[in-house]
Amino acid sequence: MTTEPFHRAAGGSVHRLLDEAFAGVEMTPDLQDLKEEIRANLAVRADELMVDGRSPEQAARQAFDELGDLGALIAETQGVDAPDAGARSRLAEHLARRVRPRPAFVVRTVLLCLVALAGLVVLVLDGFGVLTASLGLLVAAVAAVALPLGWVTADALRQETTSSFPLPVRRAAGFGVGVGLILAGLGVGWLVVQGVAVAWLVLAAAAVVGGIALLSYLGATKTNRHKPWVLAQSADFEDRFSTDPAAAARFGIYTAVLWTAAFALFIVLSFTVGWAWSWLALVVGFLVMLVILARMLFPPKG
Description:
Elements (H helix, E strand, L loop, with lengths): L7 H14 L7 H23 L4 H10 L4 H9 L6 H13 L5 H25 L7 H23 L11 H25 L6 H21 L7 H6 L6 H4 L1 H28 L2 H4 L1 H18 L5
Helix pairs in contact: 1-2, 1-3, 2-3, 2-5, 6-7, 7-8, 8-9, 9-12, 12-14
């Protein structure tokens, strides 16, 4: 059988790693075919990684690690009489499609989540009376939760994944802003519950409604970012919002109106019947939104 040539610099490491993986295995024609096909796939993947700046040894090692459980694949091939073309095909597809997270993205995400966690701890400790924080510190804690998590959301959508292409910068930033506004609004609402001036509740409601409206608009006007193989697998599922832009636009408008009304009712109930019951307006708003979503995605037949 023929295989694609691979970069000589990484060839020695690929051979060594593959020989170690097959050490002690009684070779059969089927396993030999599988080994050569794996070698060709490793070579192609190692070339791609070397173009990205990896050394030959690093490229070979990462390509090999991306294989996953090679022992299971060998055992699967040993258990059949004919060459396991299906297993080899799945391996080739996996190597061709798999996208590993960039180390810099992982580091950024961890650091930003730690900042958000620190802000959340301050808010919780103050809420339960363990910490007596100033208003300035509480506002900073809310920002420490909302801003990093909004950034993480946008950053994550800008990353290529196994199934999706990166989202354009503006749309990714829009999702990040929407998440940040909602978290900021909820955080300010929490401060109001803890005794901060009730006037801040208007700001909290505006932030949450604005964030939900923005996310609804972005969701209703979404563009496809899935890779072709994902679309091929999900071709039988009819996504009405993708095929009917008018329905997507209506859902975005319905959602904005619904949440504006829900938060207005929440504010009115907070001043009249109190906090014990006002939160039910938000719960009802969420449930109604789910019903609208289900009705619009899956309209009755006939």
